[in-house]
Each structure stands twice: as C-alpha cells, then as structure tokens.
Amino acid sequence: MRNYYSTVILGVLFMLLSGGLMAQGLRISGRVTSSADGQPLPGVNVLVKGTTNGVSTDANGNYSLTIPNGSVTLLLTSIGSVSQEVAVGNRTVINVQLVEALNELSQVVVTGYNTTQRKDITGSITSVSPEKFKNIPVASFDQALQGQAAGVQVTQSSGTPGGGINVRVRGSTSISASNRPLFVVDGVPVEDGSLTNREFGGQQDNAFALFNANDIESIDVLKDASAKAIYGSRAANGVVLITTKKGRSGQKTTFSADVQRGVIDMVRKPSLLNASELLDLQREAVTNAGMDPDKQGLVKGVTDGVNTDWVGATTRRAIYEQYQLSTQGGNDKTQFYLSGSYRNEEGVQLNNEFGRYTAQFKFDHKATSQLSFGTNITLSRAKNKRVKGDNFLDGVYSGAIKSLPYYSPYDESGRLYAPGDDNYAGFPNFNPVGQAVLPRFETYTAKLLGGLYADYEFIPNLRFRSKISIDYNNITEDNFEPSTTAIGGFLTSVGGQGYGDFSNSTLTTLINTNTLNYNFRLAAKHKISAMAGFEVLQRQERSGNLQGRLFPSDDFTYITSAGIVDQGTSYRVNSGLISTFGEVRYDYDEKYLATLTARYDGSSRFGQDKQFGLFPSASLAWRISSEPFMQRFRFLSDLKLRSSFGFTGNERIGNFQFLGTWSSVTYSGSTGVGPSTLTNPQLQWERTREANVGLDASFFSGRLNVTVDAYSNLTDKLLFAQPIPQTTGFNTVQGNIGKVSNRGIELTMSTINIDRGGVRWSTDLNLSRNDNKVVELVSNEPIFRGYTANGVSNTNVILPGQPLGTFWGLKFLGVDPATGDAIYDDKNGDGRITPADGQVIGNAQPKLFGGFTNRVTWKGFELSGFFQFSYGNSILNLTNQTLLNSGADLQNNQSRKALDRWKKEGDITSVPKYVFQNTYNNYLSSRYLEDGSYVRLKNVSLGYSLPKKWISRYKLANIRVYVSGTNLWTLTRYSGPDPEVSTLDGSTVSQGIDFFTFPQVRTVIAGLSVNF
Fold it and tell me: Does residue 428 have a cis peptide bond before it, meaning omega lies within 30 degrees of 0?
C-alpha cells in the first residue's frame, strides 16, 4: 500500500513540474465542441502548427496552451472529426467547433469520472442514445436499456405500472448478494431496486421510476474491468452511467413542449374454462374418484347458473398521459437546463395507478478562465396505488385466474359481496373485484438528487474538481384493508374489523468526490492524461412502521382509530465507503493506447481484518488501421483491437453481517437479549477476475460499424451463508465460499443502408450470449431455493456445474395410454416416485438475447421498428400446477389445456386424467416447464416533422407529431399470457417462474413535440 501512495505522489509532482516548465509565453485557452449538437469534445489534439507544442482537450472539451509570441496557427485534429486550422491573432480565448465525420468515432462517451471520445476507448463500453427510446413510453431509464445494448439483459417482471425491472450486465456474478449493476446519475450512485418495505406478491416497485427518461442525454454501460474498475468494490455487476441534459454554449434560449396520450391493454389474457366446461371437468374428476358429483354440489344447470369472467371483471382499458416542458440555453460563460414533467399511468388492473411529478435543473458557469462551478437538482414526487398480485391468495390477478366462475362479484343491488355473505366464495378465492377496489394501498415517494461542484485550473491542463452530492428518498406507505376484504374481514387473527399499517422510511446517501486531472503531450505523438481522486460516501437508512386492527367501522381507516395497535418496528442503519482511485491513459500517435486504473476501497460492511481492498485493471488497444500496411484498404475507416484484464468487487449485502449480533427475546414473560448471528471478522467482498478481448471496426466512411467482444469472468469469495454444525446453536455463518463463472460473446452492428435522395435507412443489431455456471461451493450437495414443491423439495437448485436459475423437479415421461396416469423417471431405480427422484430439468437463462432496430427517414417522416428477443431459456409455468392440476382439488378454475386430458384407454396426450384429490398426477415435473423463447415487436413509431417554411412564420423551430405502439406482437411457444414475466422479481436463483404474474401491457400513444 505504501508503494501505491508513493506512485500517486510522484505522479502529481511530475505533472506539476511539467506544467511549470511549459507555463511560459502567452497563455491561451478555449473549448472545443461539436458543430452537430454543441456538446464538448474531449481528447481533441490542439497543436501549434509546425511544432510539437500541444495539448488535448479535457473531459469538458477545455484546453489551455502556452504559445510563443507572434503569429501562430492552431491545428485541431481528432479521428472522427474534420481537421481544422485556426489563426490565433491577438485572442487569448479561442473556442472551436469541429465538424464530425460520418462515423461514430467522435462520439463522446462517459467513462466514469471522465469522458473521452469513442476512438480513444480501450475498454468495453456500450452507449445508448435517447434517440433509441424517445418514442417509447418508458417509465424508467433501466427499462430504456431493454434490447438496446449488447451484454445487457433487461426483463420487466410484470406489467404493473412503476414495477420492478431486472437488469443483468454479462450475467449473474453472485448467489446471495445483489446482481444489479451500479447506477450512477450525473456522478452520483443512486438507490436502485425496491424502495418500499412491503411486497405485493413477488413484485417490487422501481426506484428509477422517479426519474424522467426524457431528461436523459446519454446512457453508457461499462462492462469490462478496464471500464469499470474505477468503481472498485461496487463494479462487479457492471456500471450504468446516466448523464442528464444540460445547456450548450452558443445556444440561444429554446423551449420544448411534449405531450403524450394513449391507451393500455394486456398483451394477452389467459385462456380459461367457462362455468359449463369447468363443471363437466369437475364432475368427471369426482366420478373418476368413485364419488357422486351431485353430492359434492356439482349440479348441472344449477352450479353453472352463473358464469363470471373474473379476468374481465378485474381489468380495464387504461389511460396513459405524460406532459413535459423544458428550456435550455447558454453562452461561453453560462449554460442552463430546466424541465418539468407530469406522468400518469393507469394500471390495467382496477384501482392500480402510478403518477409522477419531476423537475430538473442544471446550471454551469465559468466565473474566470480558471474557475468554473455549477449545480444540478432533480426533484420528483410519485404516488403509486398498488394492488396485491402474484402469489397472494387474495391477489387481484391471481384471484381472478383461480376463482370459480360460479360466483358473482356483485349482488342484485350492485353491492360487492364481502366475507360473511351467503354467496361469498370464501377461502381460497374471495372476491377479486372487491380485493381490487376496496383496500387502500398507497405509496408516496419523494426524491431529491442534487449536487454542487467547483472546478479550478491551477496551471494549464491541471484541473481540480470537487463535488458534494446527495441522494435523498422518502417513502411513505399508507395501507388499509376494510372488513369487506379477505384480510380485514376474513382472517381470524385480525379480528374481522379491518386491518391497517403505516410506515415511513428515508434513504439518504451523501457523497463527496474530489479529482485532480492533468493532460499533457510529450513531443508530438505522446499524449498522456492522468487522474487521481478521493471519495467519501455515507449512507443512512431510517424506517418505522405501525400496525393496527379492530377498527370501529370501515369509515375509520387510519391507525389512530384502531382499537388495538399491537405491532411496530423502527430502526436506523449507517454504512460508508472511503476510496482513493486513479487512472492513467497513454496514447502514442493515436495508434497505440494503454490505460491503467486502480481503486482502493474501504467498506463498513466488512470485518476489520478485511475492510480494505485494491481493485486494479489494465488495458491495451492497437489501432491497426493507422499502420502503413493498412493504407491500401481504403474501404476500412477504422480497425482497433482491444484487450483488458483486472479485478472488481461486490459489497452489496446487508450491513454489519461480519458482526456477532444480538436481538431481543422473550422468555416466561420477561424480555432480554440473545445471540442471533455469529461473528466473522474475515468477511470480505466478492471478487471478480475479468478478461476481455474486443474488436472495433468501421467500414465505408462509417456506414458499417461492428464491435465484437469476448469475455471470461470468474467470481470467487462468494458472500454466502456457510453451513455449520447445529451443535453451535446456529445453522449458518456469513462467509466467503464458492465460485461463479460467466463467459460470453457480444456483437454490435450498425449500418447506414441508404443515404441518398433524402432517404436514410439505418439498422442496429446487437446479439449476446452468456454462459453462467456455479463452479464451486462448500460441497457438491444441492442447495434448494424457490418455492416448496409438490412431490419434490423445491422448484430451484444451486448446484456446482449448473447455471444459476436451474429448475429442479421430476422428469415427466408422458401419460400412460392405458391408465391416464403420469409417468415419471424413477431416477434412483427403487421402484417408487419420491423426492429422491428429483433432478435438474432446465434453466431460466437464455442462450442468446438481443435487439434489432430499423429506422427510415424521408422528407420529415420517420418510421422505426424495434424487435427484442430471447432464445433458449425455460419458464416454469407454476400457474399450471393450479390451473392444470388433474383434479387435485376443485377450488380453482382450469386452463383450456385441461380439455386435452386423458379420458379413455388409448388416448395419447400430455395431460393426465382428472381424479379428485389425486395429487400424484400433479407433482412438480418437467410437464410444467416450457420453452420461454420469444421475439417481440417492442415498438413501432411513425413521426412527421412539419416543414420549417410552414412554421417559421410563427417563430417555431420544430413541430413533430407521432404515434407509437409498444409490445404490439409476440411470437412464442409459451402457453402462458407472457414469456417475459418472473414472479420473484429480481431473484437470481429463482428467476423465470410464472406464478399468477400479471403480463406485460400493450401501449398505443399519440404525441406532439413543439420546439420554439
């Protein structure tokens, strides 16, 4: 460690010395921006023509240069831009706009605490432009990544508005720690995943739904060690950098207004039996069991006298609307951006709704030639009206699918049936319509994301930047279930007089980041940029909740009116991270590139013996196209070979798990404390070793661009509950055991197929394959996870040699044509079917996934189509264990697939015969495992921009009208409503389970954008 700090100090002294030697003569400065959009261009070579005296622009496009007195001309060059010469004259401030070439090499990419041009990247970084999702009504920026970036797998676990999104970058690296990437918005690591304390089935809320995706300027995904090691112990799962919009220098103040309105439907409804069909099936099952169906109350013409479509009764065609107004502008000294938006999205399920207000303000000011400062503030307020779903017995969608059509939601007077009524279905089905509209499940979330920075240039090209930021989140949950609902009126432990709970939580992250940057050149061909930084992060979580019951009536709905307030909790948790980091980039003649990166982290989440760790990386790149022997290949615009190697970490577990903790216990009416977990001072973060090889190629002046990456990542020291002898009084201790590997290949291709006669047709394609495998655990014994299953132990297993997300069950061999009974593989050969015959039956991870986009523009018209796909993954249709249960019970409706059941000897089918109370034919097996591959037309949009000659007289810059459709069509063999759902939202080991999960929604909108 002493050598590490010595290297940093010597590097700073070298930079100061170099700057001091050059700081003689006339000093000029300025900023280099793109002529296309006014954005700053980093890494541009600024040379005094005819000399070796020069510098490169920094992350903000700024440069400072000492020149000799007299007539001087500057030469500005950059691969991907047209070279430009500028006469200095008597000026000391020279701002230049460069014209970009057709290719993407001059695209500015955020690389962590810096920015650079794509031509200078030595790591693996994928960028997603807002142009790719501007017409898609995404609720959050993680949703905007779906199908847009190679190596990034995004799944929306349900169609619930404001619901959870699952993001994986190059696979899952951990078993029990988080596998979500680190999300950084304008330099601030922000809260991700779920914010609420209460689950509604397996579905969570989404913290990113608090951001307005229309405020995004760019999204950059850091995928290999070279790109993300600068974030050290938090980077193993990838890093997603979001940069929001800001004003541009030289831009007059402009205003933009955007309006969207549309309708929302389910992509597909489940196919269920009507009352008559279900009654025939139930009577057959009872008869096959040797019983009289009439004595079971299954009477033709009586039992099926009511035929309720519960799915139709609990869903609707919903309304979507969003409005935004923004303004931006600036000059050489000051730039600003201000926006406000309102979004409201009704859920397709009754009483389900998500509404959000946001405001964004960004201000940058250059006070002097040396000092700049600025601020950014994001404010948002959301109200989420939630409904229970998924695996809740009293869930709305789950209840609508399961409920028998023999019952009605309303009585003759139009009143909802409630517990205690004669025609109330009762356990386990209740009244799904009442479960939707009667409870109050309201979550109010407020967010403040703000930062203040100052940037000072000590000597030419030696800049110090300090930023203080806060991410503040306040979550209030207000829930009440009246006596007319299942919990408030049916559950005996509550008392039948209503149930309420109220909670409030605050999540606050404070972060101070300080960086020192220095760029310089040696001779004409050696370009060096160095950065050193120090960062302190502190996070605090506070939470408390109360629960009450026995309310005097359903008109009194808050805890203060509860007859008994008998449960409550509160807690506070602090955690922190202290870090130093550094990066050195070397560029020889824009031909040979090298990057060294390291971060040294100390985390409060680990024991004193393992609290600090070093995460280094190195990468090399060779621009082959710049070699003399390549000059004859005129069709080749750029060809660059990249390689990287390094280490990253994962510290995203609960706080203080290295400590031996105590908790309150009650014994014989007395309260005391007792041990709850064992100490482990050796606990440390997971470590991922990453290797990457990539190739970037551009052909025909940028009309064809191809990027290929291959990687091999190995994660060891997994944060895992290590089994220990129960004689200790404990079952497990938190430890570091096991290994997980991810290997894969990625392809990104973009083409400009036609660009003439006013017609431009472009295509984007990305393909990804990732092979995930558990390499090692404490033993080779299976570790079961997921749901408890009928006939075997659990639905999922963690097993060395198998990927995470592996399904476990009996192997289904078909239906015996002679008896109609299911045939299972007797794995152990003992002549019986028992849980010991359980085996691996499939896995949820796809073999290939990606996206495909085509965009055509012509005379103001723009048409785009975006397909997203997944291939080779399995889905466990656990819903069918209820809806295709072979007569195990008569309490649930059945899928239409049940009509294919075995009825008589000789029938060939995959559905066993229905026999009342026979559970053997309903064991969890590969019968419920289906191919989850799909191709989805994710979005089609058509827009038209009015000719400027029509609108210029009204002083309008642009008017654009458009229509857009999302989730319009899906090609899949999956029998359920939607192949993309996953009941246990965000789960790593139990992904790909469909258990009454609400499917995706289809959205059709019309929009109007006006710029003036």
Answer: yes
pLDDT attached to residue 106: 67
Question: Rounded distance, CA 618 to CA 13, Å?
Answer: 23
Residues 765, 771, 776: CA angle, nearest 5 degrees = 160
Q: What is the pLDDT of residue 68?
A: 84
Q: Give me the chain's average pLDDT, please.
A: 90
The confidence score (pLDDT) of residue 22 equals: 39
Contact criterion met (CB below 8 Å) for 242 and 308: no
State pLDDT tens for residues 606-631. Answer: 887 888 999 999 999 999 998 989 88
**Helices and strands in the chain: count of H runs, count of E runs:** 9, 51
213-251 as b/e, with b when 16 or more CB fall inside 10 Å? Answer: bbbbbbbbbbbbbbbbbbbbbbbbbbbbbbbbbbbbbee
Q: Which amino acid is at 639?
A: L
CA distance 993 to 1009: 40
Least Cα distance to 697 among 630, 592, 625 occurs for 625
DSSP strands (E only) in 624-718: 636-650, 662-667, 670-675, 686-699, 704-716
**CA distance linking residue 1008 with residue 945, whole number of Å:** 10
The 10 Å Cβ neighbour count of residue 371 is 12
- Residue 80 confidence (pLDDT): 65
- Cα separation, 673 vs 161, whole angstroms: 43
Q: What is the average per-residue pLDDT within 842-868? A: 95
In the chain, the amino acid numbered 289 is A
pLDDT at site 133: 84
Helices (H), 856-997: 880-883, 948-951
In the structure, what pLDDT confidence band is assigned to residue 705 with cuts at 50, 70 and 90?
very high
Contact yes or no for 713/172 (Cβ under 8 A): no
Q: State how far the Cα of 468 lies from the Cα of 448, in Å rounded to an integer.
A: 14
DSSP per-residue string spanning 126-155:
EEE-GGGTTTS--SSHHHHTTTTSTTEEEE
CA dist., res. 805 & res. 744, Å (int) = 17
pLDDT of residue 25: 67
Cα gap 105→103, rounded to integer Å: 6
* CA-to-CA separations, 1003 to 267, 547, 642, 967, in angstroms, rounded: 9, 38, 41, 7
Report the distance separating Cα 675 and Cα 591, nearest Å. 61
pLDDT at 797: 95
Give the tens place of pLDDT for each residue, 781-807: 899 999 999 999 999 999 999 999 999
pLDDT of residue 7: 43
Q: What are 100-110's pLDDT values in tens digits?
A: 665 566 678 88
Contact, 71 vs 540, CB < 8 A?
no
Residue 908: is it exposed, middle or buried by C-beta count within 10 angstroms (0-12/13-18/19+)? exposed
Compute CA distances 238 → 276, 385, 463, 768, whole Å. Answer: 54, 32, 28, 15
Identity (one letter) of the amino acid at 76? L
**In the predicted structure, residue 569 carries a pLDDT above the cut 50:** yes
First CA to last CA distance, the chain: 57
Do residues 19 and 518 lie in contact, with contact meaning Cβ atoms separated by under 8 Å?
A: yes
What whole-number distance in Å separates Cα of residue 674 and Cα of residue 368?
62
Half-sphere exposure of 105 (CA within 13 A, CB side): 28
Determine contact, residues 544/569, Cβ cutoff 8 Å: yes
Tens of pLDDT, residue by residue over 653-700, are 877 777 777 777 776 667 777 777 778 788 888 999 999 999 999 999
Q: What is the mean pLDDT of residues 927-947?
A: 95
Q: How far is CA 346 from the centre of its chain?
A: 22
Q: What are phi and psi of 862, to 5 degrees?
A: -140, 125
Q: How many CA atoms lie within 13 A of 553 on its CB side?
A: 1
The pLDDT, as a whole number, for residue 156 is 85
